[in-house]
Write a structure and sequence with these properties.
Blueprint: E1 19-21, E2 24-26, E3 40-41, E4 46-51, E5 72-77, E6 82-87, E7 95-100, E8 109-113, E9 124-129, E10 134-141, E11 151-158
């Protein structure tokens, strides 16, 4: 049994979306946007662009409804441990962004945001990343007005996200 695995007698003892196999809880096999050939590998911090059009709609954020909208999963590995900021500023649709250490398990979510605290319909949140540990950063759409998808800009930077725009006085 893997380190940190739960022991079990029934599937129900493992929690949502997990099953009991040989007295140990296991994650289900990957589906949809978490399939290895669907995940986009990132080269560390930077600015990335893409589209959620025609992508699978198989996962959902915990901070708002995104089950109907297509999502794109990115694999991020930090070069330095610490806080990292995720932003979708410049995207052309209402995004929801979230990060997980296990792509398809909502309980592993390490950050999630629908509308940035800076205003607008882009997303922004900070999460802690360890060196050489996969973090899955997911760009999804907001289902408030039906399925939402389109072109996105994903920005990942080191440090906490800004609390104000540009040179505005944050205090």
């Amino acid at each position: 049994m893997a380190i940190g695995a739960f022991t079990c007698n029934t599937d129900e003892a493992c929690g949502a979306n997990r099953r009991c196999v040989n007295a140990g809880c296991e994650d289900p096999p990957p589906t949809g946007s978490c399939l290895p050939d669907q995940i986009i590998g990132l080269d560390g911090v930077g600015v990335y662009s893409g589209t959620t059009a025609a992508a699978p709609a198989t996962h959902s954020a915990t901070c708002d409804d995104s089950q109907l909208s297509s999502e794109v999963v990115h694999r991020f590995r930090a070069a330095q441990p610490g806080q990292h900021c995720v932003q979708t500023i410049g995207s052309d649709f209402d995004t929801i962004a979230y990060s997980r250490f296990n792509c398809q398990q909502p309980f592993s979510e390490t950050g999630c945001n629908n509308d940035s605290p800076l205003g607008g319909v882009s997303s922004q949140f900070s999460f802690f990343a360890a060196v050489d540990q996969d973090t899955f950063v997911i760009v999804d759409g907001n289902d408030d007005n039906g399925a939402s998808n389109g072109e996105y800009t994903l920005i990942i930077s080191e440090g906490d996200c800004p609390e104000c725009l540009g040179n505005d006085d944050c205090g």
